[in-house]
Amino acid sequence: MAMAGAIYSRVEQKTDGTSSVLTNHRRRAVAVATLFIFGFLPLILYFIFVHDPFTSKPVVCGSRETTIGESQDYGSKTSGAQSIFTIDRVSSQSFPFWEAKLIDTIWDLFVGRGMQFLASALSYTVLSDALLRAIQSSPVPYRTFSGISINGASATTVIALIRDLGRHSRRRAVFLFTYSALAIIYVLAMPTLLSTMAGYISTASAYVQVPETSQYVPNSDFVPGFSFQGLSGVANGTCMSYKDAGPADARTATQLGKCNSTCWTVDLDDRYHTGYWAYIKEHHNMDGCAFFRNETYDVFKATYDEFGFVTRKSTKTETYNCNDTVTIDVAGKTFPFLTAVRNSTKTNFQIYTSGTYCYGTRAYQQQQIDANTKCLPDVGSGNDDASTYRWGFSSLLSSIVLIVHALWCISMFAVWMDAQKGGGVGGGGGGAGGGLDQLRALFTVAAVACEVTEMSAAQLAKAPRGVVEKVLDGGAGSGGGGGGGGAKVGAELFEMDEGGKGGA
């Protein structure tokens, strides 16, 4: 007994020294810092770096330039509950499957499980202090005490808290342990939530189902152009791309601008006052006009983009006679360019008019293409052309999870602050007892079990588990200190006696 007293004295001295260093002021400072770093900082950084976090963005699988400097994106469209789980913020870089899977595994292991580990440790500290605070007012069921203090954040603890809700004599205790059950459920769900809000998706490309067919072709196969109507020997709706028409278009525009002709209905010099493109549209007549003989004009050799505009102009030029007819081939037939344009949807020279696109030799309208465009996964055909994936997260679900996490941290901080007001029994609020930990909880549980069952520790170790549980948890036939309602843990076990020794 003297040896036991000496050991207790050393433990008491060590506990007193530790608690004196970690003052209440420092504990609160650490709690506030933890609240900010663990609760607020992830949310703050998320809203700084993610634009429109509550708006689910279509995952762009392709785009088309609709006019100079403007483009239209194509992507998968989601709405309602579907948008919550859509991975819409993805990396610009694509990965082979094994790399995407590795990134996802690292996220689940270090972020998901790491966050759960920290949340579990925080919840144990907070709920243990709150448990000691509750014991000051009234005893708590043995099952509730052992669940929080020994099992921590676990499904067993949640079940114990729910089953014991009807055994509390105070509403405050009912509220506290209801909250504790919900808080632990969040801790248990955290890895699943973090895993659900992130993931990888297969890279995709925009494909168009060709109207009136079941064929899908890449979106890029549809190129800007114009169609012909009423051109002799050519089916209506035959299409020509602006790129193919570019050389003849540029040559005709130069011919009209530099050569004297009967094509103009007013003085050609007025074009500089009215604006050239408006002028050329309204003040020339392509029917029956003729160019003067013995005149020439030069045209630069150039290449043209999909809109028929010059992308690269050479210093070399080609010289043409003004009265030579500029021709173009349409559906295997040759026509004067002015005649072809007169029977087409192209009304202006060297001006792109959006809305018509060519696939093969047939014209389709923009609305038809948009209505039939879908994002289809890229399928690899070999080791050098394997399917790739992009890793990302759901912006809407991430916003919800991070807000819920911040609210959880705020509520835990509030519960912890409330627990500190009472100082706790046995040092629960930072007093001499040093608060509650699993070792101290085991001693307390053993003391209560011995008292209620009137058995020694050695007898309890050998007793049938089911019988002891019935007595402690309030099953049929229970008696002793449980009073027919199961064992309870009271404040007397944590109070210091006159000799400085606790009841437990």
From TrEMBL:
Keywords: Membrane, Transmembrane, Transmembrane helix. The chain crosses the membrane at residues 29-49, 142-162, 174-194. This is Uncharacterized protein.
